[in-house]
Design goal:
This protein is mainly alpha-helical and 422 residues long. It has 13 helices and 12 strands. It has helices spanning 2-45, 71-77, 83-98, 103-122, 127-148, 157-168, 177-191, 277-299, 309-323, 327-339, 342-350, 355-367, 394-412, and strands at residues 56-59, 65-68, 150-151, 205-211, 218-219, 242-243, 247-250, 268-274, 302-305, 373-376, 381-384, 391-393. A hairpin with a 4-residue loop joins strand 10 (373-376) and strand 11. Helix 3 (83-98) packs antiparallel against helix 13, helix 4 runs antiparallel to helix 10 and helix 6 (157-168) crosses helix 7 (177-191). It is globular and about 60 Å long.
């Protein structure tokens, strides 16, 4: 009798111990699940990064097909169920709102940081410590990028055009970048408010899409407007024959009277013509990205090299910064620095280059002081990327790192998922 009672007590003790173990392991399982779900989203669009990135064909429930490599568009069309995966979709949207470009790279960076954080968690480091260290590393990264940036003046249309062309190089319509880039620059500068150049509303830039036709076609088009605030807006007027090309910039003459735009300020309309609906829609999205990067330069007038150059420079500088810290912070900052190498590694991989060899050579070049050395996907080599006119706004890079690190920190702080569905 006594042995039976002792056995039951022992079994109860084991049950309680097992339940306590389960309760203790649950937060770790939740974090692991969240990280895996978020990484799945990252893996889905990682191959779309860079000039040689692949496109995705997205078929909606109504049969509509979209072909694009724009990260924000891909994620918006994806049917994501897991709540942590939805956070990466929101991350891409936030980057699109803040900078308009880098919507793929911000998700790729976030996925790499989550992978690094997962390895740190497996070593027993507390998620709060990881999140705080990552936040510290992100702030230092923004400072490093700002120091290595090049100031740009809005009157320097050549530099602005190069930035717009870089954003278009990874798009389906990259062959028309020499035509699209100047259009984007002119459009943004024309709607920039005088005395308030940091405020540009892209709603003032209208895009009219027209299917079919050739570059030589001309026809009458209504509603092509460029109005000054001093215009008399009191009656309709039809624009004279306007030449429409694949992408052609059309502005009505000053003092044109057009109805329905009282107190509108400056408005610009861009005509887009494509051979089919898919190309036409992608051209519109590409033009939007180009407009956004110029808007970034209006907002923060600084640019940096592209081609993975800033990420490698950050990896080196943050590694050095980590050595000045002590304890867990040093370990976590180093992991953050190494995670940023995912951008040049992915660029090389998508371009058909050996990612390990390419990143190693890139690190060696930067260690020698060549801070503008980047991956030239056209030549398949490491070159001075500034000389190749591969440049991007500072705001795109700083926003990517800041938003990605904040998302990682939010995911790490989650230790349970509560379902309120009845």
């Amino acid at each position: 009798m006594t042995k039976t009672l002792m056995k039951k007590i022992g079994e109860r003790g084991n049950d309680r111990g097992f339940q306590a173990f389960k309760d203790k392991s649950k937060p770790a399982d939740i974090r692991s699940s969240n990280i895996c779900a978020a990484k799945a989203v990252n893996d889905a669009i990682r191959t779309s990064l860079g000039p040689r990135g692949m496109d995705k064909m997205i078929q909606a429930s109504n049969g509509e097909v979209t072909i694009t490599n724009d990260g924000a568009t891909i994620l918006k069309e994806m049917n994501v169920v897991h709540p942590a995966a939805k956070m990466l979709v929101e991350l891409s949207k936030a980057q699109d709102i803040e900078a308009g470009d880098g919507t793929t790279s911000v998700v790729v960076i976030c996925g790499s940081l989550l992978e690094a954080a997962n390895r740190l968690l497996q070593k027993g480091i507390h998620p709060t410590s990881i999140g705080d260290a990552f936040q510290k590393a992100a702030s230092k990264a923004v400072s490093i990028l700002t120091d290595m940036s090049i100031s740009v003046d809005l009157t320097d249309k050549e530099s602005l055009t190069k930035v717009a062309a870089t954003s278009l190089n990874s798009k389906v319509v990259h062959q028309q970048s020499s035509l699209l880039a100047p259009i984007a620059v002119d459009a943004v500068l024309k709607v920039a408010e005088e005395g308030k150049e940091a405020s540009v509303d892209l709603k003032d830039i209208k895009v009219i899409k027209k299917l079919g036709g050739t570059v030589e076609d001309t026809e009458l088009v209504d509603g092509l407007i460029f109005t000054e605030k001093s215009c008399n807006v009191n009656g309709p007027k039809r624009i004279e024959k306007a030449k429409i090309g694949l992408i052609q910039f059309c502005i009505s003459p000053p003092k044109t009277d057009i109805t329905g735009i009282q107190n509108r300020g400056k408005t610009v309309t861009v005509l887009v013509r494509g051979s089919n609906k898919l190309v036409l829609e992608e051209a519109e999205r590409s033009l939007h990205d180009a407009l956004c990067v110029i808007r970034c330069l209006v907002k923060k007038r600084a640019l940096i090299a592209g081609g993975g150059a800033p990420e490698i420079e950050l990896a080196i500088k943050l590694g050095e910064y980590g050595l000045t810290l002590g304890g867990i912070d040093a370990y976590c900052v180093q992991a953050f620095a190494n995670a940023l190498e995912v951008i040049p590694s992915t660029l090389a991989e998508n371009a058909g280059l050996n990612p390990i060899t390419t990143v190693t050579e890139l690190r060696n070049r930067h260690a020698k002081g060549e801070i503008t050395a980047g991956i030239n996907v056209r030549k398949g080599a490491i070159t001075n990327i500034l000389e190749e006119n591969v440049i991007q706004p500072l705001l795109v890079s700083t926003s990517s790192i800041t938003l990605a690190s904040e998302t990682v920190r939010s995911i790490l702080k989650i230790d349970d998922i509560v379902n309120t569905n009845q």
